[in-house]
Amino acid sequence: MTVNIYDSANQIEREIREMDEFKALQEAFTAMKAETESFELFTNFQELQMELQQKQMQGVEFSEEDAMKAQEMAMKVQETAVIQDLMQKEQAFSVIINDLNRIIMKPVQELYDMGN
């Protein structure tokens, strides 16, 4: 019997959409997006994180201005209830994704373990 791994992956994708954790994440995102100011803060925070990650990957040191801006924005994010709720829901969902990744990668891990 031939197994099509992509069919299995597509089935998992459909099942993920039905999970309570995903639905909670989706609801939290919708609630956060409905608050224009919070959504703008969230978007700006994501953009700043990507900008700082790119600098880090390029070996560019953060300026004092970068650090201050990141700290100031992180404080605003922490004070915004709908963003905090979204981040908590994202963390719960992330645990599931990490578990799935560990399961999927198990054959490779076992292969490497046999080499020891």
From TrEMBL:
Gene3D superfamilies given for it?
Answer: YheA/YmcA-like
Organism of this sequence: Candidatus Vagococcus giribetii
**Name assigned to this protein:** UPF0342 protein DOK76_07930
Task: From the UniProt annotation, give the residues forming the signal peptide.
Answer: none
Similarity field: Belongs to the UPF0342 family.
The taxonomy runs:
Bacteria, Bacillati, Bacillota, Bacilli, Lactobacillales
Domain of life per record: Bacteria
